[in-house]
Design a protein that fits this description.
The complex is a heterodimer of chains A (183) and B (573).
Chain A (H helix, E strand, L loop, with lengths): L9 H12 L21 E2 L7 E8 L2 E3 L2 E4 L4 E8 L5 E6 L1 H16 L10 H5 L15 E4 L4 E7 L6 E4 L5 H4 L2 E6 L1
Parallel strand pairs in A: 2-5, 4-10
Antiparallel strand pairs in A: 1-8, 2-3, 5-8, 6-7, 6-9, 9-10
Chain B lengths: L2 E5 L11 E15 L4 E7 L7 E5 L3 E8 L8 E3 L23 E7 L4 E6 L11 E7 L10 E10 L4 H10 L11 H11 L1 H13 L14 E4 L8 E4 L5 E8 L6 E4 L5 E6 L2 E8 L1 E4 L4 E7 L6 E7 L5 E7 L19 H8 L31 H5 L54 E10 L4 E4 L10 E4 L3 E8 L5 E5 L4 E3 L9 E2 L1 E4 L4 E7 L4 E7 L2 H5 L3 E7 L3 H10 L7
Parallel strand pairs in B: 2-5, 4-9, 10-13, 12-20, 21-24, 23-31
Antiparallel strand pairs in B: 1-2, 2-3, 5-7, 6-8, 8-9, 10-11, 13-18, 14-17, 14-19, 15-16, 15-18, 19-20, 21-22, 24-29, 25-28, 25-30, 26-27, 26-29, 30-31
Helix pairs in contact in B: 2-3
Classes of the chains: A alpha+beta (183), B mainly beta (573).
The complex binds copper (II) ion (CU) (2 copies).
């Protein structure tokens, strides 16, 4: 697995959680901000605390399975494999966060970072002029090319309205998301 | 519609059991009530539009079509891949269906998606003879929805098809309500100055076209699922649901710009083939095209489906509502676009704006119906003296490779958002391996507007030899639109792979819309033996000559044998 975004660098991520971990839309500001106030999405988990592993398969354009049950406080390792022919994302967040992140992803498509069936890593590292790049290094998500695998270790907190979703433009709208049900 | 299911057990092996459906359609005289007028027309099973045929991929269908008319009829299964004898084009696939007779179609369903069917005889289709086909896929769809609706559009005209054709032949601008008048001339002259206005008119007169001539047949009432704007077809939903809308443009002549104010639409299928989902605010549907979109409605509110004709001479309106009777605001139609000099470029010559190459043979006969001056004196010198800097060849903020730069037809979303372009269409799951085309065939889309003659490479159907293709080749078609009208080109029996520059992801369609003064390429894997129709799907363009017979020579041995056995079912329409 050579794709740098296919795996999560836990120690690094743990430090930047507050600023970027799930800050989808954090720099596009606007009307999403009020929906972003401390949602109970949980936080990146530690490998040693993993309670169980859930395998997620990405297809064109849907997930298998389409729902996952979790318990409050549980730490889950999601192993994600892209068995489709297109680029897909696996992202744990609220519906509002997904919506905000879709704007970022739309930008990534417009700037040629996501090209349907591959990710242009050169374009991804390009400075957007405002000091930002198109890097997709959110702790709550993995972006995978066809054939790639990745994982997320996530610690869920209190019950919340969460979904896992692919925010590649059009995919969420076409139905590429699943529910996270708290038991 | 009556439907019987027969379970076929192939040698007792359940796993090989193919489902077989039998369907009955009658072709009937019907009354069509548009809300604006009631008109006798033609329908199926007693209604226009006919029933929605819901089929299943992998099914072997038997469709009995009984002709209750006192004239010949036919049904073409638009977009379906099937043996050519089942394609329903009189004179090419078969002889047609005589009054009182029943013709039994039998073919396997080898695809899924949204399609439609219509008569291929005379002007029965504009007179109401059309219906929808919905084919459920064998496997899972690459998208999710809670319910689906067919949204089938047409441009119902108070005149019969025959009468419209006669009137167009008599005077090509017969149905053009937006033609400019003498009054317009002086108003424009006040604004732009007399000379500029005069030059503009001279130019348009020489083109034998009217400036506002985007729709040659105006005066229709747009229907959605058979209902006029006042009758308001309504699809119900539960808030929170995802709804798949299967848009089908069954119009004789009219393109529509479709939006649902307040909702984003995700386009998931075009012409029956899934595309990588694209979120849009609005899209244009050419004649005979289909687009499937998914909308998600979270609130308990009604939404208007608003379909403005491309030339803004009419609109279709329907509603999505949580409860019957609920409605939403119906927008005003936007101002009619005007063709620009850019849209004329192809008409003048292939190289662009070089007037030296223009054919002025007809200029002195041009009566310019609506204008006030004598054009007998027009010559190359006048044209060359025109100020071309005034021509908006590169105007417009957005560009779209499928419109001439500066085209007046370039669509814009009403809310300033995203308008679907052909360039956005990418196959979700390519049907064919991508390969180099084995040869290119140029098809210039040509016409003489004044005489209402439409043609391909300057030759109309009755004077043309068939286009011969070889089984197994991949042909690249180059469409060069030398007219000022948009032509939705439809190849029967084989897929049209639209070149959007995406290689193996190029979308697979059955109608390729070609805007004025543009060149569009499509490729076809020649994989269907027999003879097929190829034509502009605008009814009156097809009928006046923009039509070809395609003959596919060769084929897999088994198919050749099969054809010999069955014999040729020729005949005249
Ligand atoms: Cu058709
Ligand atoms: Cu045409």
């Amino acid at each position: 697995m050579k794709h740098p975004y296919g795996k999560i660098l836990i120690p690094f991520i743990a430090m930047v959680v507050a600023s970027t971990a799930w800050a989808a839309g954090a720099h596009d500001g606007g009307h999403h901000d009020k929906k972003m106030e401390k949602p109970m999405v949980g936080q990146p988990g530690k490998a040693k605390n993993v309670d169980r592993t859930v395998a997620i398969t990405m297809m064109d354009n849907y997930f298998e399975p389409e729902s996952v049950s979790v318990k409050p406080g549980e730490t889950i390792r999601f192993t994600v494999k892209n068995e489709g022919a297109l680029v897909h994302e696996f992202n744990i967040a609220t519906a509002a966060m997904h919506e905000a992140h879709q704007e970022e992803m739309q930008m990534m498509v417009e700037h040629g970072v996501i090209k349907g069936d591959r990710i242009d890593e050169q374009a991804m590292k390009m400075d957007m002029g405002d000091g930002h790049t198109m890097s997709h290094d959110h702790a709550n998500s993995v972006l995978l090319e066809p054939g790639q695998s990745g994982e997320i270790i996530w610690k869920f907190s209190k019950p919340a309205e969460l979904e896992f979703a692919c925010n590649v433009p059009g995919h969420y709208q076409a139905g590429m998301y699943g529910d996270i049900e708290f038991k | 519609m009556m439907k019987q299911w027969i379970v076929a057990l192939a040698g007792g092996m359940l796993s090989l059991a193919a489902s077989a459906g039998e369907y009955n359609l009658t072709v009937d005289r019907v009354q069509i009530d548009t809300g604006d007028f009631v008109k006798e027309g033609i329908g199926y099973n007693g209604a226009s539009p006919g029933p929605v045929l819901r089929l299943k991929e992998g099914e072997d269908v038997t469709i009995n079509v009984t002709n209750n008319l006192d004239e010949m009829t036919s049904i073409h299964w638009h977009g379906l891949i099937l043996p050519y004898q089942q394609d329903g084009v009189p004179g090419i696939s078969y002889a047609g269906i005589k009054p009182g007779e029943t013709f039994t179609y039998q073919f396997p369903i080898v695809q899924a998606g949204t399609y439609w069917f219509h008569s291929h005889s005379g002007f029965q289709e504009p007179n109401g003879a059309y219906g929808a086909i919905v084919i459920e896929p064998k496997g899972r769809e690459p998208f999710r929805y809670d319910r689906d609706y067919v949204v089938q559009l047409t441009d119902k005209h108070p005149h019969s098809g025959d009468r419209i054709m006669r009137n167009l032949k008599m005077s090509a601008d017969y149905y053009n309500r937006q033609q400019q008048t003498v009054g317009d001339f002086f108003a424009e002259a006040d604004e732009k100055g007399f000379v500029a206005t005069l030059e503009d008119r001279l130019m348009w007169g020489d083109m034998r076209m009217m400036k506002a001539d985007i729709e040659d047949v105006q005066g229709f009432t747009a229907l959605i699922n058979g209902k006029g704007p006042e009758q308001n077809w309504t699809g119900l939903f539960e808030p929170g649901e995802r709804i798949r809308l299967r848009f089908i443009n069954s119009s004789a002549m009219t393109y529509f710009d479709i939006r649902i104010p307040g909702l984003e639409m995700t386009v998931v299928q075009a012409d029956g083939n899934n595309v990588q989902p694209v979120n849009v605010d609005e899209f244009r549907i050419g004649v005979a095209e289909t687009y499937d979109v998914i909308v998600r409605i979270k609130d308990e509110k009604a939404y208007t489906i608003f379909a403005e004709s491309m030339g803004r001479s009419g609109f279709g309106r329907a509603t999505l509502a949580p409860k019957p009777g609920m409605t939403a605001a119906v927008p005003e139609m936007r101002e009619a676009p005007l063709l620009t000099m850019a849209d004329m470029a192809g008409h003048m010559d292939h190289g662009g704006m070089d007037h030296g190459g223009m054919d002025h043979g007809g200029a002195d006969q041009s009566d310019m119906g609506k204008a006030i001056m004598d054009h007998g004196s027009m010559n190359h010198g006048d044209m060359a003296g025109m100020d071309h800097s005034a021509m908006s060849m590169s105007g417009g903020d957005a560009s779209d490779p499928f419109y001439a730069a500066g085209s007046g037809l370039m669509p814009k979303a009403a809310n300033g958002g995203k308008f679907l372009s052909y360039a956005d269409l990418k196959a979700q799951n390519p049907l064919y391996e991508h390969r180099e085309a084995t040869r290119e065939i140029e098809m210039r889309l040509t016409g003489n507007m004044e005489r209402y003659e439409w043609s391909i490479n300057g030759v109309k159907y009755e004077d043309a030899d068939p286009v011969v293709l070889q089984y197994g080749e991949r042909v690249r078609f180059k469409f060069v639109n030398e007219t000022m009208m948009t032509h939705p080109m439809h190849l029967h029996g084989m897929w049209s792979i639209l070149d959007v520059g995406e290689g193996k992801w190029n979308p697979v369609k059955h109608v390729i819309s070609v805007s004025p003064a543009t060149t569009v390429y499509m490729e076809t894997e020649v994989d269907a033996p027999g003879q097929w129709a190829f034509h502009c799907h605008l009814s009156y363009h097809a009928a006046s000559g923009m039509f070809r017979k395609i003959v596919v020579e060769g084929g897999p041995d088994s198919e050749v044998a099969e054809r010999t056995q069955k014999g040729q079912q020729g005949g005249e329409s």
